Amino acid sequence: MDRADLQARAWDAAASVPDPEVPCVTVADLGILRSVDIDADGVAVARVTPTYSGCPATLAIELAVETALREAGFETRVERVLSPAWTTNWIGADAREKLREYGIAPPVEASGSIRSLFGETEVACPRCGSTETARVSEFGSTPCKAHYRCEACLEPFDYFKCI
Ligand SMILES: [Zn+2]
Q: Which of 113, 118, 124, 148 is most deeply buried (CB count within 10 A of its CB)?
């Protein structure tokens, strides 16, 4: 197997790791897994960028990626890459859809709406799509999320914070 094949196999193994906080999406979906390379010694080097510094899930993610690569038969090393900083723009379109189906409002990209001009985020309810939503608390089930309530269907939901 040449290096390109090995690299593709290593990427597939690492990319299949689910996010520990939002298991409906993988670390690759969220853009946390940046790359997997095979170095000169045949070691799979995975690069991981935390969603934000201090996120308690980062260590769990690094360990899970390392384990997945070892189980796929690789010697491995996981490196933490802090620059460029992770941004919610790295979350792919498929992953946004998966988050919504899971009941988590995906992060809103900078929009030109009136509310965003005043520093407010227009968060659409993942269940009914209404933007008549109110932030209940800055922190949801995990520090990466804020807790919201939909004024239209009255359902509470988590919003994946935009950073
Ligand atoms: Zn709703």
A: 148
Give residue 58 CA to ligand 1 midpoint distance, Å: 31
Residues 82 and 98 in one domain: no
What pLDDT, on the 0 to 100 scale, is given for residue 117?
52
Overall domain count for the chain: 2
Q: What residues make up the domain containing 39? A: 3-86
**Could you tell me the distance, in angstroms and rounded to a whole number, from the CA of residue 88 to the centre of ligand 1?**
22
* Residue 103 sits in the same domain as residue 78: no
Q: Average pLDDT for consecutive 10-residue bins of the chain (163 residues)? A: 90 94 89 95 94 76 96 96 88 91 82 52 89 86 83 92 63
CATH number at residue 36: 3.30.300.130
Q: How far apart are CA 32 and CA 21, in angstroms?
A: 13
For residue 18, which of 64, 49, 74 has the smallest C-alpha distance?
A: 64
